[in-house]
Amino acid sequence: MKDIFLREIMIAEVITAHIEDTLSEVEEKFRANGIRHVPVVDDKNRIIGIFTRNDLARCLAPHRTEEGDYVYDPDEMDRFILKYVMTKNPKTLRPEDTLKHAVDIMAREKYGCIPIVKPDGTLAGIVSQIDVMRFISNSFREA
């Protein structure tokens, strides 16, 4: 793992959010795309924050429907704007950083993901715990 570069396992087509998005817009991105993390970018695609499903649950408690599903009240969600509840200036890595480096940071800091940025600060991709586990799982199959 210490010789694997993040560019080899990162997800390059990243679903992002904008600083002025409401929580209902972000929750829709989570649900529609089956994701748990969204990098928050500015108009030049530079990373300025990150927001996760856990962050959403800390902001608002979902309600349980009669069918057993958990849903959020859209009116409550629209009272929150991402710039006030996101994690600002998240830790980032570069595509040429190693998987070992990312795993060390994720384990030590308890991060669920790390945004990957180009030298100019623009978003290049994202690596999540699931991406790491998928890579390890595929490595076992190939061995």
Provide an overview of this structure:
The protein contains 6 helices and 8 strands; from the N terminus they run E-H-E-E-H-E-E-H-H-E-H-E-E-H. With 143 residues, the protein is α+β, with helices and mostly antiparallel strands. A 4-stranded mixed sheet has the order 1-2-3-6. A two-stranded antiparallel sheet has the order 4-5. A hairpin with a 5-residue loop joins strand 7 and strand 8 (123-128). The longest helix is centred in the C-terminal third of the chain and has 14 residues, at 129-142.
Average pLDDT, rounded to a whole number, is 93
The SS-based structural class is alpha+beta
In this structure, how is the largest beta sheet organized?
Answer: 4 strands, mixed
How far is it from the N-terminal to the C-terminal residue, by CA?
Answer: 14 Å
Radius of gyration: 16 Å
- The residue ranges in which pLDDT falls below 50 over 5 or more consecutive positions are none
CATH topology: CBS-domain
User: What's the number of domains?
Assistant: 1
Biggest sheet: strand arrangement: 1-2-3-6
Quaternary structure: single chain
Give the CA-based shape.
globular
Work out the number of β strands: 8
Order of helices and strands: EHEEHEEHHEHEEH
